[in-house]
Amino acid sequence: MKILRIQGKNLASIAGEFDIDFTAAPLRSAGIFAICGPTGAGKSTILDAICLALFNNMPRTTGIEGTKMPDVGQEFIQQGDRRQILRRGTAEAMAAVEFIAVDGKSYRSVWRVWRANNKISGKLQPAELRVYPLGDPSPITTGISESENKLIQLIGLNYNQFTRTVLLAQNEFARFLKARKEEKAEVLEKLTGTEIYSVISNTVYSKTTAIRNEWKELSARMGNIRLLTQEEIETLQQQSAKLLKHEKALQQKNEEIQRKIRWIEQLEQINQSKSEAQATLSDAQKVQAEAQAQSVWLQQMESIESSRLFWIEKNECTTHLVSQTELLRQTEQALSDLNEKATQTLQSVERQKSLVNQYTTQYNKLKPELLEARRLDIGIVNARQVEQESRKTLTDLQDKIKVHQKIQDSRYSRILQQRELDDKLKEWFRKNRQHEQMCLNIKLIESFLDTAYTQRLQVIENQSLYTSTLQQLTVSRQQLELQRREIETSIQRHNDLLQLRQQQQISVNRFPISELRNRKEQLRLQRERLLQEITLTEKLDKTRQELRKRQDKLQQQQQNLQALKVRLTEYKKEIEIAEIKYTTIRHTLEQARLSVSENVVRLRAQLEENTPCPVCGSQSHPYAAHHPLADGLLETLEKEVRQHEAAYNRLKTENARLEAEHRYLGEVLPVLQNEKYESQEECEEICQQIKELYSDRSVSNGQNRINLREQLNISQKELESICLKENEWEQRQHQLETLQKELDKIQNQNNALQKTFQQTQEKVVGQATELSKLQEIIEGLKVQQNISLEKVAPFMHAPTWRQRWEDNYPDLKQELTTAAQKWQTKTLQSAENEKLLLQSVAEYEENQKNLESFRQSETEAAEALKKRSEETLSFIRKRARLLQGQTVDETERYWQELTERATQELETAIRQKEQLSGQSEQLKGKITQLRTTCDQYQKRLEKATRQLGEWLEKYNRTAPAQLTEATLISLLQVAPEKIREERERQNHLRDKVTTALATLREREKQLADHLQSPGRPDPQSESLSSLQRQYTALQEESERILQQKTEVLATLHTQEENQKQAATLKDTLDAKTKLLNQWSKLDDLIGSQSGYKFKEIAQGYTLDILLSYANIQLRELTSRYQLQRIPDELALQVIDHDLCDEARSVFSLSGGESFLISLALALGLSSFSSRNHFEENLFIDEGFGTLDSETLQIVMEALERLRSQGRQVGIISHVQELTERIPAKICLVKTGNGKSKVVVE
Fold this sequence. Notes:
This protein is an alpha/beta fold. 73% of the residues lie in helices and 7% in strands.
């Protein structure tokens, strides 16, 4: 998608219509353009116009609550209504964008809003959005909804994706880099538009909580069932309590012995580690000592490295001097031969000249008069021309003096205003000097105050909780006493009813019911077996269906991966071809530039015909003239280089995207393969279960499943018949059951009272413990709060600041922030005004010099004009006395005809002479050049020899061992690779010794810390073997106690009368437990009430994908940095390749570095949001206001690299230094009364 044109009318502060055409100059060829203007002029309004025309939405109204504000008359408008962008005092507004859609066609989208009857006082009408094919007046959409859907289809992005892709959010990423841990997931969620993960996490938590409550309710119902008599229960409970008490005592002893055993084992491990570290250190030191001789040799080689340049220079000069001397000797011999031949030719020419001189004697006598006459003719013409030019120069100087005088007056007024402002600012700083340190350290102060304020809120909260808990403890103790009395009364009543029930039981036991129950149990078991078999069969069918789906999905992803590999192979070939083409054409361009470079062109321009070239000696110079064809060819080559470079960058970007997708599929395929294997294993496991349980049936026989249903129906009918007979027996027990119910009711009440009593007792203990913890927390928070406030005190000068902090900290914080911002604003204003003042004074002085120069030139021009007039009159008088009134041409024509005939005979001899002369001059030029070259090499040789000797002498004065020149040269002949290898080896040995020594110190520290740690056994009586024997004995005793306790608990679950009810509740509880386990696992993984847990996990994966795109963009911007995610965190770190791949915290980045990282993340998000579409337009609307000049240079270089990727970048800024570096601008110019207009420069 590419924006071609932006139009608007009456939008916010931009009055009237504006038109920004990206297909016309200067924006057509501008890869980077600035949107500049003063604050409030309407720079961001241009972005609002784009969003309105494309999505009927704009950033400045997104997320604003529906607060009403007054419109014209009695009408009101929502604060977040997009129509409020209509400028006050106008009746209609319009925003239009022409763009190339993803289908390759061009469209025009128009958003309009107007008032009723097209009057300023009319009511706002609903907005209108239409889409037109470019050049066609008929719209292809009608309503807003249809237009919005059509535009999303044409652009390939929705509104949120567009704002993340085209309107870069690097400021949000800068906030993300340094946000607190709990804020990172929310910021990343906002940036990437992945809010659904929070909803999923909260839903899982709510569902798990609901199922857990149902499970607790069922568990409570199970706990109310009692199967034994009261006497048996009391006996077993007492026995169980004794066993439990004994078990706890054994467990405490067991834990104490385990701690001592672990202490001894850890001591042995630490001693062993220490011995290993000592051995490692000894070995490393031994190896280092053995390499001492090589270390000395390396030091010597490094000490003589500074003489290598002198030695190389000496060798090169010697070689060149010999070759140039031989060439000079050969050239001088050739010149001698040529001079002998030229002497003979010169004698012939002299003879012919003597004959010509006889005919030209009289003409030469007349020649002085001819020359004087011609000189006077030319002088007359020149004098008149000079006189006219002097008159014009005088007039121009007088005009310039008037203009510069006006400029000087305006500049003097401006200097006075700037000096007055500078005095006011200095006075302000003097009055507020006591607040300087507070303003400069505002971030640190706010950090300490925020920490103290948070701690103060926590103190208040914990104090409130302490008071509430104390009140609850008092109430709980009162409830505990009341519950004890109720338990005693209920136990007495239960004993009376139990005696009466035993008498009734004797009469009921005479009825035979055992056979019916046995048969009923058999039918129940048979029914459960049939249900289990049916469930396994149905589960097998579902598992097989899931297996087929996973197989199909796996096959599809494998096909996608194979196709992607083919595309990657093709792209790599295309990249190699494009790289070869780009390298070739760039090399051709460099050769062409070299041939037309400024130095070569200047040297050629200095050549004269028949004069030998100082380089080649030739007197013929065919390339001296300028050739426009060469410039045209150079321009064509530069254009081809840019085209090939753009194509090569596009291929690299697409290849990176495909490689990221390839890695993603490579990660997905193993997961799908594992899911397939899990389904296969589950199918085989179910089949194996069916075969083990029912070996007489086939797993896949459909007829068997029908028979199972029939058998289940038969068993169910027989079971119902037995239940009817059992009901008959139950009716006979009516009286006994009535008594039993009353007894059970009392028993349940007793159990409930006992449980409530125990809970109240535990609650009292828990509340007392909580009170103690709260008291400790409150005291600790108060101490931390005082520490934070004491760190702030040195910066605060107001005596009541601490009281104000306690009374209303937000207002105090706002005042401090405002004061710091005002200090910073005044500082910037002072620096800017001082800079402008110096500039104005310099301009005033420079203009004053120019004005005085112009006035002096005016006087000189007037005198020159008078002088030129007198000279013209003098020339006219002298010319009248020469040649008797004849012209110079007539006289010269007569004498030239006489001399031409004699000259023709001389031409042949002269041509031969000139030819020999040219060859002689060529050889002389070459000889001169060779002598100069030899002298230069001789001087360089002497200098290199002297420097090498001086270096050797200086070295021998300080070195322990003396060196001769021969020894030095033999050492310098050693290959640098060998020196580098020895240096790396020595560094490696030093690192091994350092590492081994640090490891040994760490082991010694661990040993000392361990010996001081608690839990150390007595070395005399508590050896490892004795402790292990005690541990074994305690384990045997614990197993015996556990077995007894298990037998007691098993006895408590035997009660035949309540078996049916217990079984029913158990089945329901088991099903609910299985469901709870499934949801609990999911809840442990991703569930949370706030939604943060799954949001953090999902945003971690999202951040990984985003970083892969961001690093691609970062490599295009700068090769120095690489982004990495800190493991298991949403935090980032930066790998600095210039610092040996050091991992740097994002808090250590400078402003320019943070901007580059944030810009790379924003561009990565842009690529991530538009994976299927390439967006050619980018707009940056923040991030430049606090950057210095050096950082701005880094930013501009980064943006230039964006331009090379085929993107057109728009920068919205009011920073003058930045906008001055960008030639193409869209300027917002204020015209007064809150109005602005758009000017494209």
